[in-house]
Amino acid sequence: MKNYLKHDAWNIIEEGFHRKHNQISESIFSLGNGRMGQRANFEEYFSGETLQGNYVAGIYYPDKTRVGWWKIGYPEYFAKVLNAANWNGIYIEFDGEVFDLNKCEVNDFYRVLNMKEGYLERRFEATLVSGKIVKVVAQRFCSIVDDQVGAIRYSFTPVNFSGPVNINLFVDADVVNEDSNYDEKFWIDVATDTENDQAYVIAETKKTAFQVATGMRFGVTADGEAVDYKVTHVKREKYAACVIDFDCEEGKEVVIDKIAANLSSMNYEKDALMENCQKVVNAAYEKGFVTMKQEQAAAWASKWEESDIKIDGDVSAQQGIRFNIFQMYQTYTGEDERLNIGPKGFTGEKYGGSTYWDTEAYCFPFYMATADQKVARNLLVYRYKHLDRAIENAGKLGFKDGAALYPMVTMNGEECHNEWEITFEEIHRNGAIAYAIYDYIEYTGDKMYLAEYGLEVLIGIARFWNQRVHFSSRKGKYVMHGVTGPNEYENNVNNNFYTNYIAAWCLKYAMEAIEFVKREAPDRWTAIEDKVKFYENTETGEWKKVVDNIYLPYDEEMKVFKQADGFFDKEWEKTVDDLKPEDRPINQNWSWDRILRSVYIKQADVLQGMYFFEDHFDEDTLRRNFNFYEPRTVHESSLSPCIHVVLAAKLGKLDKAYEMYLRTARLDLDDYNNDTEDGCHITSMAGTWLAVVKGFGGMRIKDGQLVFNTMLPEQWEGYSFKIRFRGSIVEVKVNKEGTTLVNHSDEALKVQLNGKEIDL
Amino acid sequence: MKNYLKHDAWNIIEEGFHRKHNQISESIFSLGNGRMGQRANFEEYFSGETLQGNYVAGIYYPDKTRVGWWKIGYPEYFAKVLNAANWNGIYIEFDGEVFDLNKCEVNDFYRVLNMKEGYLERRFEATLVSGKIVKVVAQRFCSIVDDQVGAIRYSFTPVNFSGPVNINLFVDADVVNEDSNYDEKFWIDVATDTENDQAYVIAETKKTAFQVATGMRFGVTADGEAVDYKVTHVKREKYAACVIDFDCEEGKEVVIDKIAANLSSMNYEKDALMENCQKVVNAAYEKGFVTMKQEQAAAWASKWEESDIKIDGDVSAQQGIRFNIFQMYQTYTGEDERLNIGPKGFTGEKYGGSTYWDTEAYCFPFYMATADQKVARNLLVYRYKHLDRAIENAGKLGFKDGAALYPMVTMNGEECHNEWEITFEEIHRNGAIAYAIYDYIEYTGDKMYLAEYGLEVLIGIARFWNQRVHFSSRKGKYVMHGVTGPNEYENNVNNNFYTNYIAAWCLKYAMEAIEFVKREAPDRWTAIEDKVKFYENTETGEWKKVVDNIYLPYDEEMKVFKQADGFFDKEWEKTVDDLKPEDRPINQNWSWDRILRSVYIKQADVLQGMYFFEDHFDEDTLRRNFNFYEPRTVHESSLSPCIHVVLAAKLGKLDKAYEMYLRTARLDLDDYNNDTEDGCHITSMAGTWLAVVKGFGGMRIKDGQLVFNTMLPEQWEGYSFKIRFRGSIVEVKVNKEGTTLVNHSDEALKVQLNGKEIDL
Lengths: 760, 760
What we know:
With 760 residues, the first copy, chain A, is an alpha+beta fold.
């Protein structure tokens, strides 16, 4: 746990240069716009610890896997997000001396991520080894107005010297991924170009043959006057630069604007990349840094207008929630149905930047409630487009007849993960993908999504579950062996309650969806029936048998669902209170077998089911299961606490809810898990939003109606949030006096607030 | 399955050059003497597919592991047997043309492994691209008389040409391991030396700093006359050679003797290595190839005298069993307690050449019954010397107070294996190590071994089991969660019958051993008690509770022990007969999850327990369990069939026993599993011996007495074997007339034969 950042409602602030936390800061101060993003690496050359990172959404490389022991069915390749061309480099030499903060004495260092307006700023005064003192102010952002563009204004003032300065403004695609499995570079050179104040590079990924053009144009003034510099152009493989020389004068501020763009072959013909990149760069340059920055601020203002959560009386909580919302929107904007949300977004390489079940289970409600309906819909369509691959994936594991198993980790629909207990067994992910379709329709009312895309996915998933269970003659029930539930601290168990439950639910929902499409879009049904070769009587007949006879493990003594067979043979009497401080976190202190056979739970598992299917259980059942499982949960996944906030709030356990809330809200800002240097936990950030809106706000959909059951943690003065719902925008304000609802749209709306129906 | 080798009682014969099977032949025709060994690589340069392999026992390298996902407690290094200096290379050029069988037309190729006399021979006629025809006869062996020495006689006759020949006689330590995790070379240069007809190289292993000196001396004659050659000496890093030039004459046979030696720093001071290597090489050279070969034949004759199994009426079975016995003795001779038996012996790199539980569970009885008592004892002492490491190893997994967990795979006592379900969970290996002590004492009567070494090991193991179980309040029994049994097709199960049973047995046996030592060697007990900090009342009190209350899963309906909890929730009604041919072997056709949740069993598991503890169960119980489990067993481990032979024979199922016998006897000769090219399955070869001696011969020890219950497969005319027992050598001859026992020693002996006591 770190505490070096200043608490502020709208800004993330580092005062003083925290050299040894630099990689953490590089993660936290990251920038992005859904299409491209970057870690907060310095513009200047830096010889200290740094993880250089620039990323372009959707551009990946299938790196050949290394595993300890190969198993049949493992994918050979692990798609990973690529470290792409560096476009923010401005390397400076004063009279031949490299300007490198690692070699300077740094004073008055101030770094701020301005979340309200969407830019990063850095100010400091540095004393070089030679004694030269330089003052710097640097601002930059990834534009959300034109998501191909990034802009930098870098200004420096020689405080105590005049003399020659050499500035290298480059674009460099000759970069590596730190996590490359075979220390290989993933980019090959296609073209470079320089002229006057511009430099361009086009590089292509090996194997996947994506091309990305990265270009920049710069301008320099000194005290507002044009500078008469000498420019040298440097081109080499995957690298292009304009290197300028001039004399700077003591006290005269030099201002460098560097406007850059990334264009990829996902959106342009390869032949046209260079030309378009030049067009985009020049258009942005003409518009100018100041205008672009104003537009950026306006665009962020309108995003905040819709998605902000205000918390009164607790500035650290306020900062935490805004940071999370800010990062969510930096990562994914929903403009492009080919994209998704990587666990680290654009803040690092870890986890390959690929898609996990996190998207559906945690991120989906956030985008659904705060953005245009098409954003959430695009997340669903993403999986629809991967359906064939999911069927292939299931085929590799021996399933047939159109059964679909969505991958645990993917970039293009193919499975990337290679641990048998996860890849082959953590199959509940299939359930979350079906659930998101249900959730979307509940929320938006867009039932025709089923006919268009949803049903095919649901049928593929249902077929998988139907083949994955088998009938146990001894139990007289359908059972499911060899699974890993959401709690990854049990592997290869039989009859994980959550997985069995969601499997049966998927089968049931698929049958309902078939009936709906048959009735409401019969032609479409005929087309789907034909396409997926649906065998009505036999298939739904089998599904129904499974639904009616699924085994749900239950403990008669404690009257709770069993997490899995054998759970009550563990030392289940123990709780987290029996752990010694030096045991925690157990995943950093215990060997895996010890974790597996312990009673301790990584993240909501039975309770994940209670969360998704709250209405299927009476409150006593929810309470008994919560009271049993929560005290045995170590919350060592960042995805755990939020689910517990929602359930605790539902059960009126406000203190517990708030305690859980604190564990998630500032995870990265305080580097709670000691791993923020690898990047931020983007997907779990959505959990904070869930915690406030579904937890304290008690937001639900019931019978097509918005429902709120609000409560206010006593540590707060109040909070408010807005959500979109079927064309309306509803603001919920909660404070010590009570709850106010405001309808910001023209349409009338009935909602339920704390048990009463209200017209808005 | 291949069938390209000729069936012969005493020889392995390849007629005709099977180019595409060359790597398989390299494995099968391997040579060794317990101290060093090598694959049957050609002396000449060979540009075709080949796995070059020369190995020196005990010389290993801790290669840094690569795993997919790291878990706490994993070892960082995987010790692997090193590919060491090549000493058999004799590279030849005729008039500048490289002599390379891969580029020649090869006629009359004949390769024989003469097992009776312990040498390898190759004869052929090769036509080079130039049209030159060369006849070759090459013989070589690793001496079992001086286990530091290897000898080659390589002779060639130019059939249709005369002219210049260039011969490179080298020793080359600049070699790689094919399985190097980071493509690194493991040897560094120490010294090279050449003079006249000799070349020497000393290389040192990285990290482990073993040094090995490899040297050679050669002689050349043509038609029996000394050859007047010109010699050039070549020395470079890790390489030394004598390169000779002379003219060969059509029809005149050139005979090259190359006598080599490997000496290691395990046995010599590093400073003295070169000098001693020269001494050993020269002494052997002086003795000469012919004398050495005669001594080799005599030494093998006396090994065969003691350990041969004769099978009449089935030459392929005869060849199979002799090949297995031959390879066992090539791999391990029991001379050095620091050595053990790698799964591939000196025939390949796979499995790192380290020690597995195979040694105790499969190989141990072979050496105990066919070699001097000290050989088996040395195998036990090997584990005693690793006890501290086993305690360390258990410590890494959170066990304490002297609990010992022996590694799954090791070279020096440290764990090498990195798969959580094996490393942390396949802990039954601890049981086999305790069982071997018991077995040794039963067989030899050497009870004082307990006082000297055995008891400390037993206490460490007992402490581990005592900590590894926990009390289940629901079952009212001690249970053991998260284990992998011998059947590796179930992972991370609870209450594996075999593991629970052997754990309880270990606790009981440790208590008996304590009582024995206390009574018979009270001083030694005091010393041990002090050393291991034994807390009598609390420790044995706890152990007793576990022994009395261990949970042994049992199925009331089928009246068999359950392999593990949940087994009867599988589709247990299925048997191997329900598998389609294209499913088999399932480990090459099914994804891992499918294998895990299937009913199919890789190798004896419940039945492994019945095999070890036959006397603990009545025959009905043995029969029910055999009848239930064998039909569900796919025998995809080479260690599986032998156990089933022994049990089937015990139960009078001679046909089943013979069917199982066939699956193991010629595993490598027929390349049954399509993997002999990686090396031979050395440890499972002991299984064939078990199958004959304990299976068909029904050999047991009861109350300190040898017992035989013999039977004869109808496919055989008869068989015979000899075993050593407490100073006697007993020969058992079985044929259609009956069984004859012969006592080859001077001591009188009472044995039981087919239910009757006999005086020998």
